[in-house]
User: Fold these one by one.
Assistant:
Number 1:
Amino acid sequence: MTSVEIVSFGYLHGEPPAAHLTIDLRHHFRDPHVSPELRYMTAHDEPVRATVLATPGIAALVEATAAAVAAFAAGPSAGPVIVADGCAGGRHRAPTFAMALADRLRRNGVTVAVSHRDLAKPVVQR
């Protein structure tokens, strides 16, 4: 199977990266940023990952995105499949989703590279 590159990002930090598939997590999934106890944490912190992964619809979206990646990879063109997933600031939902998708794809033997464009940037004050 084709390799996959996953890039998480925050829309508040700039335009989405170029990708074959872009997932916008901003409007349909609760933002951990609204919880003061999670605001300054990131997807590297278990409470953030647990909160995001427990959000209704996230697990189904990971599965659906994995199926979409497989469809892209089945096409006749060679090269990696690039998935970009974004949330508002790029510190909570998007990187957690990216890591979950990478884990899901790796269980199927897919080679996956993950990068987080905005994870290390300061919290956006809004």
Number 2:
Amino acid sequence: MTVPSILEGVRVIDMTSVVFGPYATQILADLGADVIKVEAPGGDQFRYSGKPAKTRGMSPGFMALNRNKRSILLDLKSDEDRATMADLLKSADIFIHNVRLGAIEKLGFGPDQVKAIKDDMIYIHCVGFGAGGPYAGLQAYDDVIQAASGTATLTGRVDWTGEARYLPSLIADKVAGLHGAQAALAAYIHKLRTGESQFVEVPMFEAFARFMLAEHLSGLTFAPPNAEVCYARQIDPYRQPFPTADGYISIVPYTPESWSTVFQVLEDPGFLDQPELQTVKEQFFNQHRLYQRLAELTPSRTTADWTERFRAARIPCMPVRDMADMLDDPHLRATGFFTRREHPSEGVWYDMKSAVRYTAGANDSHTPPPRIGEQSDEIRAELLSLKTTPKDNDPSGDR
């Protein structure tokens, strides 16, 4: 017997763009949901971002976030296409978008308007800042959220410059995307249990602030504060990859006992005999000295040599890899993380599988990232079929 995928039979109408929303709906699509990507003329702007694409509108970033989805091109300023959008919503379980509420209400698809179209719709609104605060309604991109959350100050704390810099990743977008997928799944489970639909707001700023402050609120957790903001271990300027004879290595002596092992591997066990390094508490408050000494000793051997020695001593370590090496990473190759696929228009490309493994209900099907409006005719035909197919137990066929 064929086991249905986890979200098989769930239809998601996805009117998101760039990274935040598409990251969320990619997770739902990978779980087997029928994700229909509604694109305005010109398409999702992330189709044109990043490195040059082989074909205009099919950027590498877009391809990484939009597999297992179908695309329909709709101009919602058109009466005909608004009617098609309404038909799509009638056929769906979840509606997710990142359009300002005022703008989407003008198009006829605000929360109350969609509820009138389909009473049990789960309505997910991806926003930059939550309603009720002074930032509500402001535009938000990853850089803006990194700035607002204090994240852009962290690099300056560890490189002694004090300068604000962005982390070189769309990390706020992706963290918010995880929250978006979680919100959609939680609301769907609630609906299964109670029959109740709901409006869900997923704000990027609040999601990312919670993510970053989990460790960095630190001493400000208490009233009055008992220490400074930021988790000291994470902002220690000396806690960096350590140089080797031919590269860098990450070494993590996380427990008090492991420091003794580390300095035995480094062939400098006497370093911990200093009075200010005798106890666990003293080692904690002098971690920068431990890290400094590590950095002085690691250049004496190659990365491979240190990796072998520290793993033999059961000290967590890993060579520092370049991102260009990821396609050849032995672990990712062994686990089948990258899959070499053929795209109808883009040719050979490398797809990355979902990181989560399921013993039941995994979605084994795969469809390539769609070109703009690629499935428009197919989806319209489905909607027409739904209109002309009589309802179950309704001989009249009226809908």
Number 3:
Amino acid sequence: MAQAVVIGAGPAGLMAAEELAAAGHDVLVAEAKPSVARKFLMAGKSGLNLTKDEPFETLMQSYGPAADWLAPMIAEFDADGVQDWARDLGQELFTGSTGRVFPPVMKASTLLRAWLARLDGAGVQIRTRWRWLGWDADALQFDTPDGMQRVTPDVTVLALGGSSWARLGSDGQWAQVLRNSGVALAPFAPANSALSVDWSPHMRSHFGAALKSVRWTAGDLHSRGEAAISASGLEGGGLYSLTPALRDGTPLFVDLVPDLDKEALQSRLAAKKPKTTLTQWLKKSLRLPPQKVALFHEMVKAAAVPQVEWGAALKHLPIRHEGLRPMDEAISTAGGVTHAALDDGLMLTALPGVFCAGEMLDWEAPTGGYLLTACMATGRWAGRSAADWLRGG
């Protein structure tokens, strides 16, 4: 019988397992998929952004309403903590110009192999293709390749992910199990999501093109990041941080010339020769790339912006869209186990001895290292709290 069971082998679950093993407990990690940390590996394919190297107070601003209750956990495993942990696994790191921290290999597989080797050395057992079905009295029930398995641990840590990228393991099916046990949950919602746009045919030649040097605005939220034009809409880090506002239907605008103030823009527009078309002027005077010019024409037409206002629209172009892409396509999700359902150690008050960690908790953050930092910090906190609980602390 395992003394501690961790369900979910993503970064939060593996971190919890590491802490429980370090405290001297036998640990079994159960993972529904055929291999561990699949979303972690997928994220690493575009460059494993471990954390954001910035002061703690600045770091916490990216966690929105959840910052207050996440603060103690991230304070003990902040950007410096994440980097120290990775280096202790023998990984070299570098910090980019924006403060984002990466391993030089720019992928997750090397770090994951080192991590799994350390867990194996600590005696942590990992079982894949073990899908958790809930409880039968005090026993955890799993559907496994060897049939139904029942395990009755002394403590359980749930690190089951959110409800996006179901093919990688985060399908949210655990929510009904916890709801039936009296755990308060907030509805899932997409976070770090792309937008759906019904493009006209003339935009097809620009699919895949990046919109750089732009400033996006949705209500009180702003972003200077880039986005790409795709067949289904717009996607990229420049938009992801605006998801909380866009989710609520807040209008989206883009400044196509953020480095040019209104007065300078009007001066250039006034100097435009009468025979010069607007498209020619946009390309030659403002030196806008084709994708920006195409987006401008697409959106002034979609929003029926009067021609006399086209100059001003370059600084405040309304983006007409059909809302966020489906939740399963989102990089992460909001919603899940509410803060009110947990004690200070991330134990479910309705289920003593059961702790939660990672994206299944009700918080969200933009991409850029914030997601991974909080997943590992909450996993570490839950693992340590579970070890304290086993000691009767």
